[in-house]
Design goal:
Blueprint (H helix, E strand, L loop, with lengths): L9 H4 L2 H7 L6 H27 L5 H8 L5 H10 L8 H13 L5 E2 L5 E2 H36 L8 H10 L2 H15 L19 H37 L3 H8 L4 H13 L1 H14 L4 H6 L5 H11 L2 H29 L1 H7 L1
Antiparallel strand pairs: 1-2
Helix pairs in contact: 3-16, 7-10, 7-13, 7-16, 8-10, 9-10, 10-12, 11-12, 13-16, 15-16, 16-17
């Protein structure tokens, strides 16, 4: 008799999630090393562009300062340029080398727009507001949209499908109008939330329950508008991926074996469908540091986005470069974390790219 050849189990062999469990103990060093080199090159290129791009603009921060202060002497103006690294006696290459020397020492320069304060101090003051508000809203929106999209995709054809066009429609409304509409309805007419700012006028920031509560009240309305504006994209993307995954053979085999629907949904279908969402989420996490400029303008919120806008208008090179540096590093770190998570969840990624 010819011995029977054991056939592989489609459920065990066909899912990314199952293969990830088998290979979880192996660290993909080669894959991570190649990605690290790529990101180091990307960081160098971004910082080089960060140096040259502002200097291609007409005028500089000192010119803007002189336009507002007519009584500054030419000697004081030249001293300011030398202090800001804009000394015309130095070549552009020498300025570039000095820029890297200061950068490697952690010196981001001084901000003329903020009274010659160190750029690190100015950014450190605005960064927590942006991360606390936009970061929280982005994570909540991603979680609700991904979980909701998985459920809607699993129960396709039901009344839950109506959530997708509703949330997508809300996401197509310009955020400027959505924020103003929220202020008009919930702040002006109903009086449920403050109109703007991160805390009340005359309040001194301090670590107390009263101040934290006021910050939460002031941040609730802008956070809700961010969640509503971005929810549709997460839900639509996850729902479409679920529809693709549900047609795979291993899902059919799992259901044929009598597995509970909850296990099939979250253990196999959603776990594989969420992979493309991870990269998008990493990009969103990275751009949190940049803040939502429109949101910060509408709600007069003291975040990094408004700080970057003010620095651009004033041509404050040091502040622009400092904000761009933080933004670049945050995007790269978020993508590195996404690559690591992707490599462990989907072994095919590290096998292909290593």
């Amino acid at each position: 008799m010819t011995p029977e050849i054991a056939q592989p189990d489609a459920l065990a062999a066909g899912t990314t999630a199952t293969r990830a469990v088998k290979g979880r103990g192996r660290v993909p060093w080669r894959f991570l090393g190649s990605r690290a080199l790529f990101y180091l090159f990307t960081l160098w290129a971004a910082l080089t562009i960060n140096f040259f791009l502002p200097r291609m603009m007409k005028g500089d921060a000192v010119d803007q300062y002189l336009a507002r202060n007519r009584n500054v002497s030419p000697e004081a103006a030249e001293a300011l340029r030398a202090l800001l690294g804009l000394d015309t006696d130095k070549s552009l290459l020498q300025q570039y080398l000095d820029y890297w020397g200061l950068l490697l020492r952690g010196d981001l320069g001084i901000s003329l727009l903020h009274g010659l304060r160190p750029v690190t101090e100015v950014i450190a003051q605005a960064l927590p507001w942006t991360i606390g508000l936009v970061g929280f809203a982005t994570v909540v929106s991603f979680a609700i949209g991904t979980i909701g999209g998985a459920v809607v995709g699993w129960r396709r054809g039901s009344r839950l499908d109506a959530l997708v066009p509703i949330t997508t429609f809300l996401g197509t409304i310009p955020y400027f109008w959505l924020g103003l509409l929220a202020i008009a309805v919930f702040s002006v007419n109903l009086g449920w939330f403050p109109i703007g700012k991160a805390y009340g006028v005359g309040v001194t920031p301090e670590w107390s329950l009263e101040f934290v509560g006021e910050v939460i009240v002031h941040g609730t309305l802008p956070a809700l508008t961010i969640i509503i504006a971005s929810l549709g994209g997460w839900m639509l993307g996850m729902r479409n991926m679920m529809l693709t995954v549900l047609d795979e053979d291993y899902i059919t085999v799992a259901q044929a074996k009598g597995m509970p629907n909850r296990r099939v949904l979250w253990g196999y279908a959603a776990r594989n469908a969420v992979l493309p969402q991870i990269q998008s989420f990493a990009l969103s996490i990275g751009f949190i540091v940049g803040g939502t400029i429109v949101m910060e303008m509408v709600f007069s919120y003291p975040g990094v986005g408004k700080l970057l806008l003010d620095a651009t208008n004033a041509k404050d090179y040091a502040l622009m470069q400092g904000v761009f540096l933080i933004l670049t590093i945050s995007v790269l770190v978020a993508n590195i974390i996404a690559d690591i998570a992707y490599a462990f969840l989907d072994p095919r990624t590290r096998q292909t790219e290593a």
